[in-house]
User: Fold this.
Amino acid sequence: MYPDYMAESLLKVVQTRPKRLELARKPDPVYPPMSAEERRTVLEGFHPDFEASARRKVRVGPNRDESLTTEVADLLESHAWLRSNQVDLKKPDFETDLLIIGGGGAGCNAALVAMKEHGLRSIIATKLRMGDANTMMSQGGMQAAVSRTDSPTRHYLDAIGGGHFENKPELVRALTEDGPGVVKWLEDLGVCWDKEQDGSLKTMHGGGTSRKRMLSCRDYTGAMIMRTLMDEVRNHPDMIEVKEFMPAVELIMDDKGHCAGAVLYDMESEEFFTVKAKSTVVATGGYGRLHIRGYDTTNHYGATGDGLVMAYRAGAKLMYMDSVQYHPTGVSFPEQIAGFLVTEAIRGAGGQPLNKDGELFVFPREPRDIEASAIIRECVQNGGGVPTPSGRVGVWLDSPLIDMLHGEGYTEKHFPAMYRQFIRYGIDITKLPMLIYPSLHYQNGGIEINERCETDLPGLYVAGEASGGLHGRNRLMGNSVLDYNVFGRRAGKYAGEYAKKVKLGKLSLAHLDSYEKELADAGVKTDLVTPVLLPSYAPEDVRKRQLLRADNELPGTSVLHNRLHDERSGA
Ligand code: MEZ
Assistant:
């Protein structure tokens, strides 16, 4: 339930509703969409990427001297868990055709296609359980041009416009042209898309879409897709081996510069294991749990940008790592679920963002970066936000309008996840608005790929949120769900083709030593050891005690014991 002091503001929402409802029933926009100039002004003034300390130059690696998001630069200027002499690469613990790092949607798609198209075996190594991924958490839908009034070309133009015309065109072309085929692939595997009475696919609008293009499974779209892909992977244990709680901590190269697998860390036994693979797919997702600029996040617990740092140390170039997506509508209250996603489909269905006086202050379906910036401006500059008991702030998202527009019961039927998320805390979103604020949602950039998911490093493929270039500096809703399916499948196809012909040389971790040297030469001084693996939510005083316990070693080295090395070196 909302605290009593919010009652006055809630009353204003009720008072302004009849007028807003009348407007929403007309074909015209409920609020004037911004001009290009207005968009630029709000972005530069209020998007967190434009804050003075949001970016800094990275001092090492393939993107040296480029301005990156500060937290990403910190992540890249960090020590590895391992040095080359700590692991014996002569006798790898496991060998496979494809090593797939990450057990979300992209990774599962890659393994399935490598098996179905090439008859190849994969190991999926994942930090938590298979499906513990942002894939599982996406709600509102997947874009694909399937309706009679739509086409891949229109989808292409929307995606490029949303990305401020900076997207890599060949990637957008692959995304939009493969879209309809992905819808069929998923349906054939068992995904139950929402349908109209006549059996055709139901489509909705999302921010920045010129046609209704959002396919959904109510607001459990990601859960439905992930469950289906996982079932299919589990159906083939002879071809796809899943190693859970075994994150990769470093890529292995060969002496010819090919990527040749990875070192895994068994979180239960605390041992390192080596995997030799003909090709390697990084599908580790994004970095929401880095809590960039202190923002809450919609992301799952494991989203710590592990693939970025491993690939970067090995020499892969990153793209657009100065750009972060804040979802306009994360939960601001109840604070137990602060940052959780409130799907954009709520605005697609007619939900309106309102200030503390119940007034609309932005067109509800501006592209994400614009919408988020307008909400921040309303709270920070205009004083239009509603404070929460613990010092957060938010604006209302008027959800009761949805049933008024579409008929009683619509919200509970089409947004069951959202309804449950709030009713647990005594807030019935069919009767009361939600209090929301932007929440860190997506890594717009990532490891640079081409349309075959290839990186600068032969044998290293990347798919899904870990990759960069597709979305430019702003992704539209539903394009990430399509992204991990399209490029997960492509990674399986092209990494498979490569695996069939490559001849690997001698395995090596020499790049780790070179990177350490580069850090020293650049004068970088840091305690940070990465990949982060699990984010720490311990407060400062607890952290200090943890450091003392570690006997002043680098934080984390006491946690990760290199038993493999100890055993092999007889220590
Ligand atoms: O693409 C997304 O980020 C998505 C589907 C999120 C949402 O608002 O539901």
